[in-house]
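Shipment paperwork, digital attachment
Item: protein structure file
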Amino acid sequence: MGRRTIRPDEWQYRERTSSEVRGTLIQLVLEFVLAARTLPGVSRVALVGSLATEKDRPKDADVLVTIVEEGNLNALARLGRRLKGRAQGINSGADVFLATSDGQYLGRVCHYSECHRRVACRARHCGVRSHLNDDLDVLTLPPALVVAPPILLFPTVSAAVVVPADVEASLLAALRADS
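Attachment content:
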């Protein structure tokens, strides 16, 4: 009897169904948005990545946050670490991408709680701006995505793509009802 080849998405999530994986990630994004929109300096929050598509088992939740360029990232970084940590509870992940209101991609929220130089840090300018991981040579979002993300969650709820039914029902409807 031969060994069964396990697809990577099955290996990552084991017995969790697609609706369990997507539902958990959507709920985590909702909690993030509800908290992030109250922070000073946050002007826009959008859903990007595979969760904004019909992909059965997205590997993570990706959120794009537009901020005032000189704003303090401490509270936003704390929310980003909470989102990432809770997503890890289902063997998933999360990224909080940062951009300015003029469409400049800045990088990601650093996942370390204390900002100081580390060997494993891939930021170009670690510590220059607290909690900013400007690892632009590792990952850079396309300018078109930064300017026009697929699904806006704050300050308005709108979409430039066909929204998956679960995202509409569990995320967008909840945000519309709460605003």
